[in-house]
Amino acid sequence: MTSSFNVHNAAGYEQLMGRWSRRLAPLFINFAGLADGEKVLDVGCGTGSLTFALAEAADLAEIAAIDYSPVFVEAAARRNTDPRISIRQADACALPYDDGTFDRALALLVLHFVPAAAQTVAEIRRVVRPGGVAAAAVWDHLGGMPGMRMMVDTVAALSEGGRRLRERYCFQPMMQPGEMKQTFVEQGFLDVAETELMIRMDYQSFDDFWAPIAAAEGPLGQYVATLDETERMRIGAAVRDAYQAGRPDGPRSFANVAWACRGAVP
């Protein structure tokens, strides 16, 4: 089942989100737990932010990583030098592993881009052994990403298309308080816990913020790519004004919150 995350090249993704998912990965691992000797699955590995953080966090026996995007799979495989890590293209809604294969399965910044997120949670439970643990984290687009809301609120003020973008962006799957926790409970997990994880996104300039969006990366970039040149320039100028907020262009820092959930397989 396709992802709703639009990606053209790995470098663009890294500038848009990969650098921030690397900051989030250690916090997520600490919440999810990890133990030496485990076999771990990374569901939706992207360019490997979590995959390679897992390899550094514990003496794991095996790390399997999957992603739907061949662009991501190629980029992560190119980076990999660890024989414990295997990376393949696969669908998170139909994981290509036998029941109970893994001690732990983690999904970092994935479920909100899967059209059938509950099905993915069910698949994650299936491939984790009894007594094993699964965990997932998603950005809080509605209330926890002021830097991105700055852009979507700006475009929403400019057009009906922008308002529709904001509605889609702010209410993707698993983003509301308690939503992931409820899904984990409904899929039969035990000892389900939910928390918030926070990092900061630090940009050097407006161009550092805007370049991957202007290059059509991610859902915001995909929207910008549908506009004609005049409208793109109008939106770019308006978002620049919001970023600068009356001060000279330069570094800006935004707090960013992710919801995280974990549960045990009975």
TrEMBL record:
| Alphabetized Gene3D superfamilies for the sequence | Vaccinia Virus protein VP39 (3.40.50.150)
Q: Which UniProt keywords apply?
A: Ubiquinone
Show the InterPro entries listed in the entry: Methyltransf_11, SAM-dependent_MTases_sf
Where would I find the Methyltransferase type domain in this sequence?
Answer: 41-135
PANTHER family associated with the record = METHYLTRANSFERASE
The protein here is known as Ubiquinone/menaquinone biosynthesis C-methylase UbiE
- What is the organism field in this record? Sinorhizobium kostiense
